[in-house]
Amino acid sequence: MRAVVYSEAGGPDVLRLVERRIPEPGSGEVRVAVAVSGVNPTDWKARRATGQGRLPFSELVPNQDGAGTIDAVGAGVAASRVGERVWLWEAAWQRADGTAQEYVVLPEPQVVRLDDSVSFDVGASLGIPALTAHRSLTVSELGPRQLAHAALAGQTVLVAGGAGAVGHAAVQLARWAGARVIATVSSDEKAKLALAAGANHVVNYRSREVVDEIRSLSPNGVDVIVEVAPTINAAIDVAVLAPSGTVAAYAADGSQGLDLPVSELMFRNVRYQFVLVYTVPAPAKVQAVADVAAAAADGALSVGESAGLPLHRFPLERTADAHAAVEGGAVGKVLVDLS
Questions:
Q1: Residue 67 and residue 86: Cα distance in Å, rounded?
Q2: pTM of the predicted model over 0.85
Q3: Nearest partner of 135 among 298, 250, 240, 299, judged by Cα
Q4: Are strands 241-249 and 222-227 parallel, antiparallel or unpaired?
Q5: Cys-Cys with 37: which of 66, 151, 224, 303 at CB 3.0–4.6 Å?
């Protein structure tokens, strides 16, 4: 089978196409014929060994997310799963084998049924973005811990960077769960994407009146902020957060420091929750996977420009270009086609 691998940390040029033997599933595992592999910022950061110093394995296949069809199962897995359409999550987390290959073997819980009405493109776009968004929307003092219809009814959610992959998923999940959503963006083009994703209101965060604009839309403050840039946006978040509100920060914006008015936020009972999808507690991860699968089956997590997330496609042999596109800040979702 064809696979893309790397054996040293570095830029996209370290990725190379090789031939490998098709792997066999062991006990509790399934093998998936990958149709589409999704690329996320975490994938190029892992390739560069950001924060690690060196690679954890001698040879790695990149990419955490993907979608395809189960073609073989190991002992302990129901044979009836063969032929099932599925989406994959965290394929390369603490493992050497991601989804940039024609076949991948994974533990059964990481291979989730994809409803027949849902495309492989959607399936390959779930994983990291949707699970991160789910966690960010379910850590509030106000609840809920599970997302479903009306679970966020009565709450106002501010999504920073509403045109990004996680921001897009957060907008969609929040609207599906009944929240009112305000998204911040940096341009008119991105405003159109956030609105297409379902945001009720969009504010350009480059505006000097960004706080006033958000406050005019939500005079009592926002209940949850899904935050991509906690340091840069700290002053904005403090100014617009409601009492007992939560900032769920899922990315670091180039700084290790976060300067906050502690006494003020203490008085308001504000919560800062930092989110790393890989280390989310197991019960919360199980719930997130179930809720994301349900939302996708309900048609709530569409992709493509008309849904606010333009797709950028590359064949497997151009996986390096796909990584370069993500690392270069491509707006939308980058996918690698394997079939």
A1: 6
A2: yes
A3: 250
A4: parallel
A5: 66
DSSP one-letter string for 39-106: E-HHHHHHHTTTTTSS-SSSSBB--SEEEEEEEEE-TTS-GGGTT-EEEE--TTTTSSB-SSBSEEEE
**CB-based burial of residue 220 (10 Å sphere; 0-12 exposed, 13-18 middle, 19+ buried)?**
exposed
Interacting residues of 107 by C-beta distance below 8 A, sequence separation 6+: 28, 29
Token pair for 186: 């940096």
According to DSSP H, which parts of the chain are helical?
A: 41-47, 120-124, 127-137, 165-176, 188-197, 210-217, 234-240, 262-267, 282-297, 319-327
Query: By C-alpha distance, which of 287, 323, 288, 295 is closest to 171?
Result: 295
Poorest-confidence range of 133-142, 172-181, 251-260? 251-260
Buried residues in 183-207 as b, exposed as e (16+ CB within 10 A) = bbbeeeebbebbbbbbbbbbbebee
Q: How far apart are CA 244 and CA 265, in angstroms?
A: 9
Q: How far apart are CA 134 and CA 321, in angstroms?
A: 29
- How much is the CA Rg of the chain, to the nearest whole Å? 20
Question: How does DSSP classify residue 19?
Answer: E
**Rounded Cα distance, 339 and 182, in Å:** 38
Tokens of 131: 């699970």
Q: pLDDT of 135-166, one tens digit each?
A: 999 999 899 999 999 999 999 999 999 999 99
Cβ 213 vs Cβ 203: under 8 Å: yes
Distance in angstroms (rounded) separating the CA atoms of residues 309 and 334? 10
pLDDT at 52: 64
Helix axes 165-176, 282-297, angle to 10 degrees: 80
